[in-house]
Amino acid sequence: MTVSIVDLSGAVWRKSGRSGGGSNAACVEVAFVDAVWRKSSRSNGASNANCVEVAFAGPAVAVRDSKNPAAATLAFPAVQWSFFLRHLGS
C-alpha cells in the first residue's frame, strides 16, 4: 500500500453545509489545495443543464456541480476515479 502525503499548510477550509450548528460538535470541513477545476467535456455547453467539474488534488479527485460550486463536493481516491472512468462505457 502506498501512502500519499499532501501539504495542507496553504489549505482554505470550508465547513460542510451538513455540519451541525451552534456547538460545532458535528462539524466537517473540506479543503482542496491548489485544486484547478475543469468542466467535463461531456457537459452540455448550450444550456449548462448538466455541468460537472473535476479537480485533481494530490491523491484525491474531486467532483462538483459547476452551477453550484459552493455546494457539496465529492472526493474519491485517484485509483477509484481511474477505475470509474475505465468502466464508464462498459
UniProtKB/TrEMBL annotation:
User: Can you name the source organism?
Assistant: Saccharothrix hoggarensis
* Highest taxon of source: Bacteria
| Residue intervals of the DUF397 domain | 11-34, 35-87
UniProt xrefs under Pfam families: DUF397
What is this protein called in UniProt? DUF397 domain-containing protein
